[in-house]
Amino acid sequence: MITSSSLVVKRIFDFIFSIILLPILLIPLLLFIIIAAIDTRASGIFKQERVGQHGKKFNMYKIRTLKKEQHKLGSLDKSATKFGRFLRAYKLDELPQLFNVLFGDMSFVGPRPDIKGFADKLEGDDRIILDIKPGVTGPATIKYRDEEVILALQDDPEKYNRTIIWKDKVEINKKYIKDWSFYLDLKYIFKSIINQ
Hints:
Elements: H1 4-40, E1 45-51, E2 57-63, H2 76-79, H3 82-89, H4 97-102, E3 107-109, E4 135-137, H5 139-143, H6 147-152, H7 157-178, H8 182-194
Parallel strand pairs: 3-4
Antiparallel strand pairs: 1-2
């Protein structure tokens, strides 16, 4: 079970690891942002308000992969540019979240941060998920790596997401918090890297 001292350990690791990674990834990150800006004819950075630890809202950053027109859940890949699909396939669009981790809004491992209407609506013991920082990766993220493909196969992607996937993610994330260990975090980071 994650304790207050566990959260301190997680934060120290997140800060040190992000400091190590940023100089290595900064040049590729800037290059991807420039290409994305040309490719989408919009800002190369996409930001969106997400629900963080204790329900606090924050802006999460990604490299823009979608065209400017509106898109629906379950059809994101159709809205993505060719370069955007490449970034999404290898999760490279998530690289700007290194800054979210550095500044303390996110952790490397934890529940994925959701838009309003999901985590902020949790009740009872499900709200334990809000006790920790949302993560760049985690057990639910790894299980649903191909979530967009799954949703695209559904007649009603929005309903399927809320009634099936979201509920499963809540249970997975609750188990992660109850079983937490530093080794477990390292394991999920490693699995996320080798699964790309």
